[in-house]
C-alpha cells in the first residue's frame, strides 16, 4: 500500500486551504516557541550581565530596583548610602575591591556612570580595546556600543532616561566636559552602552566636592574628604565566597542593604518562569484549539470529497488506504505547521532579542532549545492523534451512496 | 487508435456471474421502504459480455453496485465464479475488486490533480503486493497506443474523450477478470463514443474478461453477446432489436 501519490494529489487539490492551515498552525505554535526561547535568552543574558558584580551594597529599599539600576543600568533615583562606607570596605580584609556606582547624568542617551579605574576594568578582567582607562577627572572611557569617537569632548546632562536632543540640551551641565580617552571591549551587558567616568567627576558635577581632602588629589580611593559624598550603590568583590556571605550578612542591616545580584535574579526568574509557564500553557491550549479547528476543517473537506474516496474504494482501495490518505494529509499539514512555527518562533525570538539588545545593551542569544523542540514534537503527536478523527470518519463512507453523489 | 491485444490473447475466461433472488430497497420518508431492485435470476457465462439497458431510475446503478460488491442486497446470492459476496466482508470485497475488477464510470472519475500516467497506475498503489515490474512502461505504452500524447499531463487538462480512455486504461492495466462499465459512452460525443465502445469490447474479449456494461448506446449494446433490460428493478432479456 502506498498512499503517497493520492496524498500528493489531495494536498495539491487543497493548496489554498493547506497554505492557510499551515500559516495558522505555524503562527499559533510560534507564539509558544518564541515565549519559551525568549524567556531562556533573557535568563541567560541577564545572568551573564550579573557576573560582573558579586555583591551590591545600597541603601535600604527595593532589591530589584538596586539590581536593575546598578547591573542593568535601568537608571532610577536611588536613595544614597554614606560614601564613607567606601573607605570602611577598602580597609576590610575580606574585601578585594569596592567601587562606587554613581550616576545621574546622561550623554546622548548613554548613562554616565561614575566609578573607579579598578571597577572600570572589572577588577582586572577587562582592558580597554582602544585607548586607555580614565586617569584623571574630566576623562571618560566608553562602552563598546557607545557611538562616540575617541578624543571627542562631551557634556553630560542631568537625567536618568533617554531624552530628545533638545530636552538634553536644557538639562546640560554647562562647564562640565569629559574627553573620551578609551573604549572598553564588548561584554554583552548594558554596560556596553555606558560612559564610565571617575566618580569624583560625578560628585563634582553635582556640587558635592570631589571626595578627597584636596582639590588636586589623584582620582580613586582612598576618599579622604571629611565628608565623603553619598553614592547610590557600591560594587564589592570579596576575597572568598565565605567572605561574600559574611559581608552580605553584615551589611544587610544598619542602614544598608546588601545582596548578590544573582540571588535577586533567581527570584525574578522564578516570577518570569511562572509567567512563561502560564503563557506557554495558554499557547499550548490555544494550539490545541487551532488544531481542533483545523481538524474540523479537514473533516469537512474529507466529507466534501466523499465521492473522490468512494471512487478509490470502488477501484479496490481498502478502507485503510483512504484512512491513511486522510490521516497523512491532516498530520502532514499540522506537522509542517509545527515545524514552520518552530522556525518562525525562533526567528521572532531572535528579532525580539535584537530589539532588547538595541534598547538595553543586554546581549541575548536566542538559541534554539530542546524544550521548544519537545513542545513541537508533543504538538505533532497530539495533532497526529486528533487527525485520526477525520481519518476514522472515512470508514463510515457509504461507497454506493457517495458514488451517486 | 486501437490497442493491440495483450500478448497472452488466449487467457482463461473470467468468472461467470450468478445472481439469484436479489432484492434491494431504500428507506423512504414515513418509515416505508421502496424496492429498487428485485431480480429472480440473472446469469452470465464466463467470459461473456452483457449489456444492460433501461431508463434512468430503473435500478441500473443499484444493480451495478451490487455486482461490484459496493452494495449488499438485503437478500439473495451474488456470486462471481466461486466468490460469493455474501461470505466476503467489506475488506475482502475491496480486495476482490482490486484483484478481479476493472471498473469504468460514466464520468471517468480520474483524480484531476494526477497525471494521466499516475491515474492509471493509482490502483497499483492500493494493494499489498508491490506493483509488477515494468508496469509503468506498459502503462505508457497503452497510453501512447490510445492516443494520449502527453502521459504526464494532468488529467484535468485532458479532453473528455482522452479522460475516458485514460479511465479505461486504468481499468484494463491490471488485466481484470471482470470488466464493468457504467454508461461509458454517455458523456462523450458520437465519434469518441464509438471509439470507446469498440475499445471496451475488444479489450474485454482479448483479456477473456466477463464484461458487463450498463448503457443506452446502441453501438455499444450491439457489440455485446446479450442485452438485458431493467425496468423498475426487474431484469429481463431484451427483445431482439430493442
The secondary-structure class of chain B comes to: alpha/beta
| Shape label of chain A | elongated
The topology string of helices and strands of chain A comes to HHEHHEEHEEEEHEEHEHEHHHHHH
How much of the polypeptide of chain A forms β-strand, as a percent range? 5-15%
The residue-averaged pLDDT of chain B reads 90
Radius of gyration of chain A: 31 Å
Q: How do the helices and strands follow one another from N- to C-terminus of chain B?
A: EEEHEEHEHHHEHEHEE
Which sheet architecture does the biggest sheet of chain B show? Answer: 6 strands, mixed
Helix/sheet category of chain A = alpha+beta
Amino-to-carboxy terminus distance of chain A: 27 Å
How many separate helices of chain A? 14
Q: Fraction of residues of chain B in helices?
A: 25-40%
In words, what does this structure look like?
The complex is a heterodimer of chains A (405) and B (242). Chain A is of the alpha+beta class and 405 residues long. Chain A has helices at 4-13, 15-50, 63-70, 84-90, 117-120, 165-170, 199-205, 241-251, 261-304, 306-314, 319-360, 370-386, 388-393, 399-404, and strands spanning 55-58, 95-107, 110-115, 130-131, 139-142, 153-154, 157-158, 178-183, 195-198, 233-238, 257-259. In chain A, strands 1, 2, 3, 4, 5, 6, 7, 8, 9, 10 and 11 form an eleven-stranded mixed sheet that branches. In chain B, a hairpin with a 5-residue loop joins strand 1 (17-27) and strand 2. The two termini of chain B are 29 Å apart. The interface between A and B is medium-sized, with 27 and 30 residues.
